[in-house]
Design a protein that fits this description.
The complex is a heterodimer.
Chain A (H helix, E strand, L loop, with lengths): L4 H17 L23 H14 L12 E2 L4 H4 L12 E4 L20 E2 L14 E4 L7 H6 L2 H5 L17 E3 L18 E3 L10 H13 L22 H13 L11 H12 L10 E2 L12 E2 L7 E3 L17 E3 L28 H7 L5 H8 L3 H13 L1
Helix pairs in contact in A: 2-7, 6-7, 8-11
Chain B lengths: L1 H12 L20 H4 L13 E2 L5 E16 L2 E21 L2 E10 L4 E14 L2 E9 L4 H4 L13 H6 L5 E13 L2 E10 L35 E10 L3 E11 L4 E2 L2 E2 L5 E12 L6 E11 L12 E18 L2 E16 L15 E14 L2 E12 L8 E13 L1
Antiparallel strand pairs in B: 1-2, 2-3, 2-19, 3-4, 4-5, 5-6, 6-7, 7-8, 8-9, 9-10, 10-13, 11-12, 13-14, 14-15, 15-16, 16-17, 17-18, 18-19
Classes of the chains: A alpha+beta, B mainly beta.
């Protein structure tokens, strides 16, 4: 068959141009509800630019040339919070040294956190024999700005330390001695020089600055002007990231969007949601909050659904790790937010690693590990029929 | 310096002759003669079109690549992008009938980086015994030897051969090479001792073991990072009718284990094995070329597993000429359809914590159309589809888009 060369060239050209003009060649973006990362709605253009700077800093890879370690756990924020989601056992954190509430974290023996990795030529830490420890799976960082915007008063409104309403659920705040650099905001309340912690598995950090510079220092061995002590030498060294970088990361964390629930119209999801409330899970996993005025307008007066009360609860002997932080007892844990639960496997390598240390390999297993104040709810779950159990699991997966 | 080179190019361009047609063992659609048929991948460094002024012993050459791409990642695109990934200049001279010199200088991204890729003196003692010294190309695989843009039908270089193995990895050193022919068979070897890698291959912001990180260390042209030579060797065998297969090894101590007499670390080895092949199917004239490499290295047990101690990957290109005729005044225009398959596993192994497989792998498929108005010039249209997972094996990031490029010797 004879092929006209002009036509051949024209076909190649037209195919090429057609391809260029066709947006379909670009892979589709995942639906907003299927990913955790992304900025909150209503962020100004200047805010979006800053969000990008923070996103870049959050993903910065540290190596010895730019300050990693020498002792560390992970080499970037993003390696613990992949896609802003939950962490994997690969980057599980180990806290050690504090056996009782309100005692020092035993800095002299390497506490409060184990740095189990080291750059070549250095030896990582080990846990001294006989010292109790607890393992933490890194949490998702989605929607932290909304939680940070709440007032202490709002959190305390849910506290019932003496179980006055006699529902078997108390809920106490973890009062934390603030670091020197902490600046109280209008929404903080001071009690005997301490402030309510709201971040971390034991609610041991008061705000996102403390959380962020603590993670730089304890997780990556990166010093800042706020946390200038090198974890290997225990000496003060020059800051390895700038204050601006720290502020950008905090802005990024504050302005990450809240998780968007999926399948909200699904009948089974709605049934599950009702059962979740009926068996009193929502007493601790409080669904709804509304922010007050915020310095970031996009965070002001927002109603959101994290499913946490930010308070500590007795979770029973099965979850008593024998170590603690702040005023929390060894058996007390902050109610974790459930938003993003259904997307956990997308950040955890296709698996579930739930509860504070990732011991639960499914949502159902996580429910069945609940004890202490959650014992009644757990038993109520166990007494549900198959359909009801599936409904509640489907609801939780939709979060 | 650049203006002198440009001036020389202008002068010679008024009265040049191609000292050699581009042969490349890759471009079967180009006319070949009996001499070039015997060329192997190891000859690629000299097997290029040069411009020669009269009987001057100095020859000049080079190639340029210009790209356009429209690529997106999970729905996000940076839009339309034009770039010049590289312009390379060659200078060769025959000092004596048995002594020759060649240099290859690459200007990347419009001059953002300037690298000496090759600058070596060759002394011919016997066909099986040639001495080479200077900045030599460490022969890990065929792509590293035979990397000129105009020889390939694809816009991007293979990931495994340019990012897993360092592309155009060259170092200061000495070595031997030689070839032997018998009937339709050819055998070749190369062996070099050079400066080598450094700590940066496991200490970099790529977040993975990344051999090309050592390319940023320009001090390797002054001194070794650890006083340990890097051994590079390759043997290859070629049958004129069947094709060529090569086996390469590159290895040595990579880390700075001592300095000023002080022990900083234990000695840590790096070993790289590569197999490459190319062939042309008879009758169909389908050209197939591929390469696969395995990397293993000693990494401190207490360092993060993010930096893997094993990597593997490679590519295969299938090129089918579909049209060869005169078009618009160009004689012997060749149109090819082609497809490249790529795979890289940046981190082979299992997590110590869970015993699950580590992810961090990439695969790509690149269908392509290329048009060669002359053997030295190629217009390429590629569609690239690539997926890459993170170390945990989470849902992959998908990258796709089209690339158009012009690449030509000059």
């Amino acid at each position: 068959m004879k092929i006209n060369p002009i036509i051949s060239l024209a076909i190649v050209f037209i195919l090429g141009v057609n391809t260029i003009s066709c947006e379909n060649i670009i892979p589709e973006a995942p639906a907003d509800e299927d990913v955790l990362d992304g900025a909150i709605e209503g962020l100004s253009t200047a805010g979006q630019a800053r969000f990008l700077s923070g996103d870049e800093a959050f993903g910065e890879i540290f190596f010895s040339g730019n300050g990693l370690g020498p002792l560390f756990v992970a080499n970037s924020c993003g390696s613990c919070h992949v896609g802003d989601g939950k962490g994997h056992p690969f980057t599980t954190l180990t806290r050690f040294g504090q056996t009782r509430a309100n005692v020092s974290p035993n800095l002299e023996i390497g506490g409060p956190q184990l740095q189990n990795r080291a750059i070549p030529g250095y030896t990582p830490e080990t846990i001294p024999k006989g010292v109790p420890f607890m393992k933490f799976t890194p949490p998702a960082v989605t929607g932290l700005g909304l939680l940070a915007a709440l007032t202490d008063r709002q959190i305390l409104d849910n506290a019932d330390p003496n179980d006055i309403n006699d529902d078997g659920i108390s809920g106490v705040a973890n009062y934390i001695t603030p670091p020197d650099y902490f600046i109280p905001r209008w929404y903080h309340q001071c009690v005997n020089g301490k402030y309510i912690g709201r971040f971390g598995k034991k609610a041991a950090t008061i705000d996102l600055l403390q959380q962020t510079v603590g993670a730089y220092n304890q997780d990556m061995g990166i010093t800042t002007t706020f946390e200038p002590v090198d974890q290997a030498s225990r000496l003060t060294i020059d800051p390895e990231v700038t204050d601006q970088t720290v502020r950008d990361v905090i802005f990024y964390l504050r302005t990450l969007k809240a998780r968007i629930q999926r399948s909200t119209d699904n009948a089974r999801v709605l049934t599950g949601k009702q059962i979740f409330s009926d068996i009193n899970c929502s007493s601790c996993h409080r669904p709804e909050w509304t922010t007050p005025l915020s310095d970031i307008p996009a965070l002001s007066n927002k109603t959101f659904y994290p499913y946490t009360d930010l308070l500590l609860h007795d979770m029973g002997s099965g979850l008593d790790d024998g170590a603690t932080e702040g005023s929390a007892e060894t058996y007390e844990w902050k109610t974790p937010a459930l938003w993003g639960l259904g997307l956990s496997p997308d950040a955890q390598g296709g698996e579930f690693y739930l509860m504070h240390d990732g011991r639960a390999r499914s949502i159902e297993e996580a429910i069945l590990i609940h004890g202490g104040e959650a014992q009644d709810s757990r038993e109520a779950f166990q007494n549900l029929d198959v359909y009801e159990k599936e409904a509640i699991l489907k609801f939780l997966e939709s979060l | 310096m650049t203006k002198y080179i440009l001036f020389a190019l202008i002068v010679v361009s008024s009265n040049y002759s191609f000292a050699q047609q581009v042969d490349s063992t890759l471009l079967k659609q180009t006319p070949v003669d009996s001499v070039k048929e015997r060329a192997m991948n190891m000859d690629a460094v000299y097997n290029r079109p040069f411009l020669q002024l009269g009987k001057s012993p100095v020859s000049l050459g080079g190639y340029i690549e210009a790209n356009y791409e429209y690529i997106g990642e999970d729905g996000i695109t940076e839009g339309h992008s034009f770039r010049i990934p590289r312009m390379t200049l060659f200078v060769a001279s025959s000092i004596h009938r048995k002594i020759k010199f060649l240099s290859e200088i690459e200007l990347e991204e419009g001059g953002k980086e300037i690298a000496i890729e090759f600058a070596a003196l060759d002394i011919n003692i016997h066909p099986l015994l040639n001495l080479r010294g200077g900045v030599v190309m460490n022969t890990s695989g065929a792509f590293n030897q035979n990397h000129d843009g105009p020889k390939w039908e694809f816009v991007d270089r293979p990931v495994a051969m340019t990012e897993m193995l360092p592309a155009t990895w060259s170092n200061v050193g000495f070595g031997l090479y030689g070839k032997q022919f018998k009937n339709e068979w050819a055998f070749g070897y190369e062996v070099y001792l050079t400066n080598g890698f450094d700590n940066s291959i496991i200490n970099n912001d790529e977040n993975k073991t990344f051999l090309p990180a050592s390319k940023t260390n320009a001090e390797r042209f002054e001194e070794s990072s650890n006083g340990e030579p890097l051994l590079t060797g390759k043997i290859a065998i070629k049958n004129d009718k069947i094709g060529e297969i090569g086996l390469s090894y590159m290895g040595g101590i990579y880390n700075t284990h001592q300095e000023d007499g002080l022990m900083l670390d234990t000695k840590r080895r790096l070993d790289v094995f590569t197999i490459d092949f190319n062939t042309t199917l008879p009758k169909l004239n389908t050209y197939i070329v591929g390469e696969w490499a395995w990397i293993s290295l000693d990494i401190p047990f207490t360092f993060t597993q993010q930096y893997g101690d094993r990597q593997r990957g490679g590519f295969m290109d299938i090129v089918q000429p579909v049209l060869k005729r005169e078009i618009l005044g160009f004689e012997n225009v060749t149109v090819n359809i082609a497809c490249r398959l790529e795979y890289v596993d940046w981190n082979v192994g299992r997590f110590r914590e869970t015993d699950d497989n580590m992810g961090e792998h990439l695969w790509a498929i690149v269908p392509a159309v290329s048009l060669r108005p002359s053997p030295q010039t190629v217009l390429r249209l590629n569609y690239r589809f690539m997926q890459q997972t993170d170390i945990l094996g989470n849902p992959p990031v998908t990258t796709a888009g089209i690339q158009l490029a012009l690449s030509s010797y000059f």
